[in-house]
Amino acid sequence: MAWWYLLVAGVLEVVWAYTMKQSQGFTRLLPSVITGVTMVASFGLLSLAMRTLPLGTAYTIWTGIGAVGAFVVGITVLGEQVSALRVLAAVLIVSGLVLMKLSATE
């Protein structure tokens, strides 16, 4: 169950990163509220996952899902720049996540 908590926590991290961008510095109410709610939910689920998963594994995977997810949302939704180096960086992050998962004892 901890891995599911961690996966959902990572997806919520992507949501709050996106809505934080949409809040325009917390000047827009709805995106600001969504940011706060999803941030708290993401941290809460991360803490549940950390009950059984090692700190390094849980935190690395949570931030990795958030980083790669925000990268993908930036490109697909916000029209941000795509370059070979940025894609390579995302591939390296995902490779690290896979290795971290494979090395986990839980």
UniProtKB/TrEMBL annotation:
Residue stretches spanning the membrane: 33-50, 57-78, 84-104
A Pfam family per the record: Multi_Drug_Res
PANTHER family: GUANIDINIUM EXPORTER, SMR FAMILY PROTON-DEPENDENT DRUG EFFLUX TRANSPORTER SUGE
Keyword Zinc: no
One GO CC term, this protein: plasma membrane
GO biological process: xenobiotic detoxification by transmembrane export across the plasma membrane
Alphabetically ordered keywords of this record: Cell membrane, Membrane, Transmembrane, Transmembrane helix, Transport
Family: Belongs to the drug/metabolite transporter (DMT) superfamily. Small multidrug resistance (SMR) (TC 2.A.7.1) family. Gdx/SugE subfamily.
Protein name (Swiss-Prot/TrEMBL): Guanidinium exporter
A GO term for molecular function: transmembrane transporter activity
Membrane topology category: Multi-pass membrane protein
Organism for this UniProt entry: Comamonas aquatica DA1877
Localization, UniProt: Cell membrane
